[in-house]
Each structure stands twice: as structure tokens, then as C-alpha cells.
Amino acid sequence: MSNVPITVAHGDGIGPEIMAATLHILKEAGARLDIETIEIGEKVYLAGNPAGIAPESWASLRRTKVFLKAPITTPQGGGFSSLNVAVRKTLGLYANVRPCVSYHPFVSTKHPVMDVVIVRENEEDTYAGIEYRQTQQVEECLKLISRPGSEKIVRYAFEYARRFNRKKVTCFIKDNIMKRTDGLFHRIFDEIAPEYPEIEADHWIVDIGSAKMADTPENFDVIVMPNLYGDVLSDVAAQIAGSVGLAGSSNIGEKVAMFEAIHGSAPRRAGQNLANPSGLFLGAVLMLVHINQPDIAELAHNAWLKTLEDGVHTYDMFKEGTSKQKVGTKEFADAVVARLGQKPQTLKPVSYAANTAETDAKPIVSTPAHQTKELVGVDVFLDWWKGSFYGVADDLGTHIADLSGNNLYLQSIANRGVKVYPDGQPDTFTVDHWRFRFVAEKGEGEPVTARQILALLERFVVRGYDVIKTENLYNFDGAKGYSA
Amino acid sequence: MSNVPITVAHGDGIGPEIMAATLHILKEAGARLDIETIEIGEKVYLAGNPAGIAPESWASLRRTKVFLKAPITTPQGGGFSSLNVAVRKTLGLYANVRPCVSYHPFVSTKHPVMDVVIVRENEEDTYAGIEYRQTQQVEECLKLISRPGSEKIVRYAFEYARRFNRKKVTCFIKDNIMKRTDGLFHRIFDEIAPEYPEIEADHWIVDIGSAKMADTPENFDVIVMPNLYGDVLSDVAAQIAGSVGLAGSSNIGEKVAMFEAIHGSAPRRAGQNLANPSGLFLGAVLMLVHINQPDIAELAHNAWLKTLEDGVHTYDMFKEGTSKQKVGTKEFADAVVARLGQKPQTLKPVSYAANTAETDAKPIVSTPAHQTKELVGVDVFLDWWKGSFYGVADDLGTHIADLSGNNLYLQSIANRGVKVYPDGQPDTFTVDHWRFRFVAEKGEGEPVTARQILALLERFVVRGYDVIKTENLYNFDGAKGYSA
Predict the structure, then answer these.
(1) Between residues 95 and 154 of chain B, which touch chain A (CB distance below 8 Å)?
(2) How far apart are CA B335 and CA B434, in angstroms?
(3) Which end of chain A is more exposed for a tag (fewer CB within 10 A), N or C?
(4) What integer is the mean pLDDT of B71-88?
């Protein structure tokens, strides 16, 4: 078989050492790779690239489509943006996959039986970072959840489960509160799950689900989540399995995939041959499977397990009593190389069948029937402050009700999601960020037009109100597309 | 001292049994209470009250200002909304406080040394539930974080720490991503912390902070968080301490406070004298402290600790070997009553000084200097779909750039927070939800007017574009009030 081109970045801090150790094991295991090396991180930031990657490096990533990346250091001070965010956004890496496995009794953990894979949506949710300040008191962030984005990640989770013989996929959402956004994610999970009848599907509200996962992770297998929950829970899972220092992850896009350790560049440990290369190494194992070299992945991974089992440990894993030998980065890699061909005796050996490689097929995004969309009103938001946190809504309501007309009438006023007019409570605490809901004169759900909304906005502006934002209200196939 | 009026609701499922047990202990401990009883829950929902509480019950809550609430059952089927959300929103209960303590070796836990209090903001964040569907593919939820709301909760956390002799308050946020919203919460934490020099203050990014808390909770004391993180982490903390069945919580407003167990009504356990009343009982202990009866709180709480220690356990805590006697709800309460006046020997006895009661003073919200606000542009969002997830941005950009004029020019287009025009990447996956940023002709940061924005919106509407929402761009004291 011919070599597979990959792009490698050695990073900052402990990066070069753990990358050298990882590549050494891969080479000795017979990985068939053509390596293109790019520079990323501190030096590249300081050379004037705000995302820590030079423009020409994108070409290598687009050519090889496979990126093995060591941790980097983002320089102190403003103006530098996250390299990972840049790579993820630019290359559309929509899935973050993080296996969290405990290696009891060889690595300390309170959860001896743990083998959880977190599949995290990587592009949407509040993490798109779309934020606005429009009043003295309030900051806003938009949480966006899309049907295609949710379909991609949910399908990825089930495809992953099928490829790796996983038995169950669990969905974490908070759709008792976020009925529309998290509700969409949950609905898509329920739509896709039946296509995988051999895999059990269940779901938890994220609060109690997280509590169960943190307490009894042995009851979970693959867990798929929107971005924010996945960010928090993947760190929890890695930590309670043993250490964030022992986990690798993949970031999967339709064209390009990136593999890395989940820990940082630990500059204080750098250059001392101390660091544990296991996180990056396990990222590289995921890469080998991805590029269809499962035989090499299996050989290397089992040798690594045998090394842990033999008590050959770097300082971070070392524990008097369980460990046998405290070794440096290089010696650890040598120990793994020396065990190539061996399998663990106590820990479960891994086995990667030929069919575990990812296919090149694009994730399937469905094309649901177009729903009839009808404009039925508008929420107009104002910056308004009369010096009190209490009891000003009625006054405001009376004035704004005057702006009704031309088929749009004021139905209600809300503040931070609480209705305050009409029939508000005098003890509701209100801030300077107000929502005015206008619906059709004939009643809610009757059509209005974009021109009527423009005319309404003009009435606001003429009276000198500070309109800060608008949200149109739509029905889809006759059902309300907005919360109360 | 005269009796303190409180409102009590016995709830559904196991509610009446655990409330009877709790009130029995309180009475025998000498709590000075005048109890008004209201009905909430299933029957009240089915009688046609959509939030499970009758209109006249609000009067009792407003009169007594103290609510001891048993769990309820929300009937199956649509149209019923959360009672807790209704009470919280109507009465402005801004702080959710949940002590999570482990009782090793008497109750099983992997975390023998744990005594964490989660202080969760209760009104803002994505939990305001403001959601919109405006395209075929995308749902949106607004995350709102306000300065007064953040000040109230952060100050509450520090006041709590001072009252209960806590040593440290930790803040969890994700302000490396949500720089404006979570950044505001963090900034306010940093502003308020120095007013409490005797209390250590630190902060963690919520992902790794959660991982540390789930793994080594003994390193945390009081943790203050925005609503969503607090919801997830308070369940995690309660569960890993021993069980969500063993935790009580308070919901604190400026006028009214509510005390409860954090578990549900467990209808399958109802009527069998099985349920553990401890969660509700611990909620009642928080109430006694709140209404300034710390002597009674201390007496009852220590008797309860002694009961645990003596191995008198309900079925859920019972463990062969550690437990001595498996008892029912009533017998457990009797066992606590029999130990009134005793203190635990192994577990740490509690001590509530007279000064631990909450004062009636309103939480102080600062009045920061008004910042000069200047309108500098607008983000116009469109529903636009030409049948492809790729490579349509340039086409769109050319057409929309034509709408520039009258001091507003198209600066960029973004999709799910990723810039796609000008200089977009051909492989960026895009959905039908597009953002067009217009800034002043002279350059970003120069002033524009509300009338110019109206005129721009009119140009969109005339051309037949489906404008779904707008977000104005403002500078505050010359600094950008919006993300890239």
C-alpha cells in the first residue's frame, strides 16, 4: 500500500517532545505516512498571524486533509485568536470526538470501569460567539442550532457507534427549557436513531444526565451533545477517567480531520524530557484508523496498553505501589516500541477491524419538505430606563400601545423573558432591555407584512425610542415558530 | 419570640409523606411557625391552572414571604408549564442555593471529603427561554446576561460565604469564547470580590473547572455560576456527594424565598412510607436559618446527622455493613426526633450563629457611570437558500452589496458566526441563516442613524429579501459593543 500524506505541526512547550515520541512509535509500528511539516503557534502568532497559522499552511491542510497537531502556546496579550477555533471554522470540523477510558488499576481513577466516547457538535450553539451589547445593563449572545448541523453530528455519532461496535448512543439536551433549539436537536436524534436498530438510543436532560455520567460513567457508551454541553462534559469525562493528560481527540470535517491531545502545551514542563506523550499518541491512533491503517493502530495501541500495564509510567501517572518504573518522554516511547506485537493481559486489548475507517462519503443531510412560512408579527426590543428596577412596565405599556396601528398591535411586554404587561407583577425586577410583541390586529397568527413592520419601526423612531433589535415572528405550516 | 408565618405546600407523590415527616421534626425541635397551607401540583393543574398554582395562593406567598414546598407531579400532556419556573419568575427568585455535602462513611460516595455550595443565577442566561424559528433550518435562543442580575448573584454568593464562614468563592464562566456575556459576569465577580478581603476568590473556565469539581470536589467551597452552568453543575455536585435524594435547596428573592428538596415527587414510591424525607428536611433547615431561628436549625440538623451516623437509614441510603436499621419515612423522622439535643460524633456538627440569618436589606446593585452609547451599524439577518450548503456566499455578497448606500455599506457576511464574504473559504458549510453587517461609509465605528437603518431595511424589503431579524451595533465610550 502506498503512503498516506499527512500534515504535522510540532507546536510549542512540550509539543515538540511529545510529537517526536509519537512519531517515533508510529514509524516503528510501520505507519505508512508521508509527512508534511508546518509551523503553528507562538512564533507564528508573533510573526503577525493573528490565528497562529501562516496563510500558506492552509494549502498543506487542504492537500493532505489530515492534520496531526501538537499543543501550542497562545502569546499573552490581546489581539491573538484561537488557532483551534480558526482551523475548526475554516475547515468546517463539525465533530469533536473524545474517547475517555479508565486504565484501572494501572492509572488512578475513582471510576474503574469507564469507556465513554463524547461526540460534541463543534460549530454551533452559543460557541459561534455572536454577541451584542445594546444597553447599559445587558449583554446578549445568540445560540443557534440548525437542522443540518444537528443532523451531521447525530448521524456521525451513530455511524461512529456502528463502526466501533458500540452498543448505545445517548443524547444530552435541555429541551424542557429550550424547547425550540434543544428541542430541534432532540427531535433529529429521535428521527435518526431508528435507522440504526442495532444500537440502543436514549436521552437525558443534561443536568441529571451529567450527574449520572459523573457518578456512574460505566452506564454510558457514546454520548452526543450540542457544543456547550459537550465542551463541559468531555472535560469532566476525561478527568474522571484518569486525567485530561491521557486523552486524545479528533476533530472531523467533511474534507479535513485534525487529531490532537486534549491538554495544553505546559511550557513549564518543556525541554525536560518529562511530558507524557500519551494524549497525542492516542490522537495519532485515531488518525491511523481514520486513514485506514487499522493494523498499525491496533499494533501501536496494544503496545501502549501493555506499557501502562507493565507499570512503565511518566511522572504524571506514576504512583508508588502500582507503578514500576518512572520514565521520561523518550523512554516511555521506547518502552512502547519495545512492546510492539504484545497485547495487554489485564486491560482489554483493542481491535480495529478493516471496516472501522471512515468512508469518504459526505454525511447525509436530509432535505425535509419545505414548510409554509408566514410572517405573523414582530418583537421589537428597546433600550429604556427610567431609573428604577421595579414597577415601570405599565407606564411604558401605555405609551407604546399608542404605536399600535396599521395592522400591528401591542400584545405584550416582557423583560428578561418575563411578561410584565399587561397584568404584570409589581415585584418583578426589570432591567433596561425590553421586548414589545406586536401581532396582527385580527389576532395572533393572522398574517402581517414586512412593510407593516417597517412602518411600525418608523413610528418608534419618530417618537425617539431607541430600537436596539428586532425578531420577526413566523408560523411554519400554521404552527408558532416562537416562544411565549 | 413570636411565631413566623410560612406557607407550606404538601405536593404530590411522596410529597405529603416527606412533608409530614419534616414538619413533625420541626415541631418537636420547637420551630416557632404559623403555617398557612396551599395546594399546588397535579390537582391544581387539572383544575385548569396552567402553572399548577391557584391565583389566590400567590396572596399567601406574598404575605408570608416564606415557602416550604414539597415536590409535585406535572401531568402528562401538553399545555402545562413548570410551577417552579412560574414561582421563580413571578416572585423574582434570583438565587438558587444548593449545599452538597458528603456523609462518609455513612452514605456511599466516591468523594468522602465534600462540602460544596453551588450558588446559581436563576433568572437569566438561555433559561429565559426566548426562542425563535425564522428559517427552514435554524432555531435561535437568546442568552441574556445583565449587569444588575450578575451583581445580585455574585454579591449573594459572597454574602453567603461571609455569613456561613466559608473561605472561598469560585466563579465558573466560559469567557474565552463568550467574551461579552460571560465576560460581563466574570468582570462583575472581579469587581465585587475585593469587597470581601477575608474570602479567597478564584475562577475557572467552566469546562476544566467542572472536570476538577467532578474529580476533586474537596478543593471547592462556594461556586457561583450563570444559570445554565449552575443547573448542570448543581446536579453533578449533589449526585457525587451521595445522592440527589439527600440535598435541599433554597430559591432566594428580594422579597420571597422558597425552600425545597431537589428531587421529584417519585409517584411510584408514594403512599408506602418508604421515601427519604432528608432532602425536604434539609431545605427546611435552610428555611429556619433564613427566618432567624438558627437555634432550632442547629438542633434539628445535628439530630439528623446523628441519625445518619447511627445507621438509621431509609431504603435509598441503606447499605449492608454500614447501615444498622432500615426504616420508613415516619420511623426516620421519629429517630431524628429521638436524637434532638444530640450531636454527631464522627461527622462534623453544624453550628448556626445568630448572625447567619439573611438580612432584609435588598441586594445592592451598583449604579455605574452611564456610558456614551453610539449607533455605528446594523446586522441584518436574512432567510436565504439557493439549494446548496457550499459556495453561494460570493453570489449573495455581490447582490447585497448593491444595497449599500445612504451612509451604510456592506462590510461582511457571516453564516453561523463564520465570515464567508468577502474572502470566504469555498469549503465552509453554510445554512439558510445569513448575517449582513453594515457599517458607516466612512469606516467602522463612525456614527450612523436609526433613520439610515430604516432606509436600508426598506431597500431589502423592496427587493423582496426576507429580513428575519436585526441587531444594532453600538459603541460604548468609544469601544465596540459587538463581536467580530
Answers:
(1) 110-111, 123-124, 126-134, 136-149
(2) 64
(3) N
(4) 82
